[in-house]
């Protein structure tokens, strides 16, 4: 039932500003990104792949290659598909998981879905001829699509699954990289493409006592259906007599909570910062509409979405969803004058006020509704769009345990402690997200050794240096597809695709021209950094007002992380820049040897 709690309806601009400030202040912590821990040491078991049969073995591979691609997610697959189309097939793809898919391999939690429209998110739809079943595709469909891409572009023959990089080293005399793996493969290759993922390294909160918990526990990206029962659609019958706790209320929790709510005897949702949850409105694809799309439609639609969510305001909004409505104006933009500043602030406040009013309308209990209201700007955290998350809190078996911005105090053998109260649970789920702003090699899980025995982490000890985010001096022929000094977008696959296109252009040129080495000059790297800094616009200023999260380095950040920044305003800026460079610059900025 709707309630008419008017508590936040009529706050003045000054009161709202103050409220945002207070809520941010509550959450700032001196340990910033160091508050989290990874799946190493005593938490190693969290990293076990629950989706493969144990005991897999294969013969080691020894091979001379043109390219080793690291990562079989969308980045690696798009690069591999592009190379294949360019006639380059002497490559291998090294992938930790048991199949292609990356994010969509790991994230199989019930109700997982992509929050960006499938017609712009799923790459190469025109080439595979695949019609997504819904406007917002669910994870199993996306995972199956990754497998279809693998088959369409004959990538399975190149894959080395369940395999991790043990060592990657530049051989100066041979002008080749020598790659060894956890399965004793020995690969000698001219070029490397590292597509190690964006949100792939899961993290745990640094809460005291996690290791002491005696019940079952896992991270959302390693879902244990053998414990919960059920499948990606929910129906987790084994939870019917269980008390379940979930820590985190980000985009992942928003999707999984409704299914846990339906299945568990009792569900405790431990909240530090509420999510902003707008309307979803999913619907099946109309096959007639899909058939009517003219060749070239997908790239146009992808650009249209990105324009629509970065304030470029295309004449026609092809997507027409809450993303494009809410992000129509880029409220992070540097205003030209005080009037525009006030207008941008008003738009942002209004959008978030809409989100808060939706909570009041949906949540029955006014106290719960109040606790679930997000008090931060619309770009501070990734907004969520969901129609079942908020109603789940009206169920009698669902309990919101708010921590007033402080986070959970402690995990004990039996459960979770907040404000001195222990909540015993049988299953404790961590929806605590992924590393985003930690060091690049820490996230990769290996440290390439380039010229003169210098590792990438040593070379980048003061922060990353690249040209276009794709090559770094001292690491010849080692291409990277990442957000580090590269591109980023609301539609991750758009940004990954643009970087992958640039990488494959460079790589194909090198192979065609029999180029022995390619790497940027120091001057070009410095220029690129200044170009990136020049794009910051109002984003840094906006982020500084935000409640902590991965988008602003948990409210901290230093020079090193500032240097890791992508082309921050819009992937279209990055794409236009590198496209014009490709057509006019004659490889300026790169040192090339034959
Ligand atoms: P997030 O990093 O967004 O969320 C982590 C959650 O854990 C936050 O709510 C955080 O609170 C909470 N948390 C951390 N430490 C503690 C603590 N000590 N006590 C209590 N709570 C704590 O991770 P997600 O996995 O939800 O999402 C990560 C990203 O993955 C998304 O932003 C999105 O980009 C992507 N994603 C995309 C989807 C899609 O549809 N395309 C779907 C799901 C995820 P706090 O906010 O206070 O830090």
**Bound chemical compounds:** NADPH dihydro-nicotinamide-adenine-dinucleotide phosphate
Overall pLDDT metric: 94
The radius of gyration computed from the alpha-carbon positions, rounded to a whole number of angstroms, is 24 Å
How many DSSP-defined strands?
21
Largest beta-sheet characterization: 7 strands, mixed
Alpha-beta classification: alpha/beta
Distance between the termini: 72 Å
The percent range for helix content is 25-40%
CATH superfamily of the largest domain: FAD/NAD(P)-binding domain
CATH top level of the largest domain is: Alpha Beta
Number of helices: 21
Strand content: 15-25%
Name the overall outline.
Answer: globular
Search tags:
seven-stranded mixed β-sheet; binds NADPH dihydro-nicotinamide-adenine-dinucleotide phosphate; 2 domains; disordered N terminus; single chain; FAD/NAD(P)-binding domain; 594 residues; globular
Description:
This protein is an alpha/beta fold. The protein folds into two domains: 7-30 and 204-280 and 365-430, 3-Layer(bba) Sandwich (FAD/NAD(P)-binding domain), CATH 3.50.50; 62-201 and 437-593, 3-Layer(bba) Sandwich (FAD/NAD(P)-binding domain). The chain is built from 21 helices and 21 strands. The longest helix is centred in the middle third of the chain and has 25 residues, at 338-362. The termini are far apart. Residues 1-6 have low confidence and may be disordered. Residues 27, 113-116, 199, 205, 207, 247-253, 255, 270, 272-273, 382, 403, 407-408, 431-434, 549-550 line the site of NADPH dihydro-nicotinamide-adenine-dinucleotide phosphate.
């Amino acid at each position: 039932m709707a309630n008419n709690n008017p508590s936040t309806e009529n706050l003045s601009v000054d009161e709202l500003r103050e409220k945002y400030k207070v809520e941010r202040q509550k959450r700032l912590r001196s340990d910033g990104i160091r508050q989290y821990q990874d799946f190493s040491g005593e938490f190693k078991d969290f990293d076990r792949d629950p989706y493969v049969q144990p005991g897999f073995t294969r013969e080691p591979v020894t091979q001379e290659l043109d390219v080793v691609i690291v990562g079989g997610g969308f980045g690696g697959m798009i690069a591999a598909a592009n190379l294949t189309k360019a006639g380059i097939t002497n490559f291998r793809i090294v992938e930790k998981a048991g199949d292609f898919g990356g994010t969509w391999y790991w994230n199989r939690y019930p109700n997982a879905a992509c929050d960006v429209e499938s017609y712009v998110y799923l790459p190469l739809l025109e080439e595979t001829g695949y019609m997504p079943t819904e406007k917002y595709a669910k994870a199993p469909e996306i995972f199956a699509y990754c497998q279809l891409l693998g088959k369409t572009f004959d990538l399975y023959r190149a894959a080395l699954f369940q395999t991790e990089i043990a060592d990657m080293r530049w051989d100066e005399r041979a002008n080749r990289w020598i790659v060894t793996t956890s399965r004793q493969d020995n690969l000698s290759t001219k070029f490397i493409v590292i597509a190690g993922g964006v949100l792939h390294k899961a993290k745990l909160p640094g809460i005291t006592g996690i290791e002491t918990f005696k019940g079952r526990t896992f991270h959302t990206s390693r879902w244990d259906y053998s414990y919960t029962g059920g499948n990606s659609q929910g129906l987790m019958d084994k939870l019917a007599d269980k008390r379940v706790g979930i820590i985190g209320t980000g985009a992942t929790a928003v999707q999984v909570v409704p299914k846990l709510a339906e299945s568990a005897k009792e569900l405790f949702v431990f909240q530090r910062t509420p999510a902003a949850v707008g309307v979803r409105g999913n619907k099946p694809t109309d096959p007639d509409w899909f058939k009517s799309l003219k060749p070239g439609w997908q790239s146009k639609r992808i650009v249209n979405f990105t324009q629509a969510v970065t304030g470029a305001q295309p004449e026609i909004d092809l997507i027409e969803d809450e993303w494009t409505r809410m992000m129509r104006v880029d409220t992070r933009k540097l205003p030209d004058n005080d009037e525009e500043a006030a207008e941008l602030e008003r738009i942002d406040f209004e959008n978030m006020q809409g989100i808060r009013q939706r909570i009041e309308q949906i949540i029955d209990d006014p106290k719960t509704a109040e606790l679930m209201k997000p008090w931060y700007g619309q770009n501070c955290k990734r907004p969520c769009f969901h129609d079942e998350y908020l109603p789940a809190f009206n169920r009698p078996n669902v309990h919101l345990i708010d921590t007033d911005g402080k986070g959970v105090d402690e995990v004990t053998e039996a459960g979770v402690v907040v404000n001195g109260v222990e909540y015993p649970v049988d299953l404790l789920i961590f929806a605590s997200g992924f590393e985003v702003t930690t060091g690049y090699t820490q996230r990769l899980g290996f440290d390439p050794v380039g010229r003169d025995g210098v590792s990438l982490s040593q070379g980048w000890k003061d922060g990353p240096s690249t040209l276009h985010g794709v090559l770094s001096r001292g690491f010849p022929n080692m291409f990277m597809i990442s957000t580090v000094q590269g591109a980023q977008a609301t539609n991750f696959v758009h940004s990954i695709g643009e970087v992958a296109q640039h990488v494959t252009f460079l790589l194909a040129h090198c192979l065609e021209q029999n180029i022995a080495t390619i790497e940027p000059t120091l001057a070009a790297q410095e220029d690129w950094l200044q170009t990136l800094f020049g794009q910051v616009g109002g984003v840094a200023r906006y982020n500084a007002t935000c409640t902590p999260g991965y988008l602003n380095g948990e409210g901290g950040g230093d020079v090193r992380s500032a240097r890791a920044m992508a082309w921050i305003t819009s992937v279209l800026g990055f794409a236009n820049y590198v496209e014009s460079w490709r057509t006019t610059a004659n490889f300026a900025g790169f040192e090339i040897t034959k």
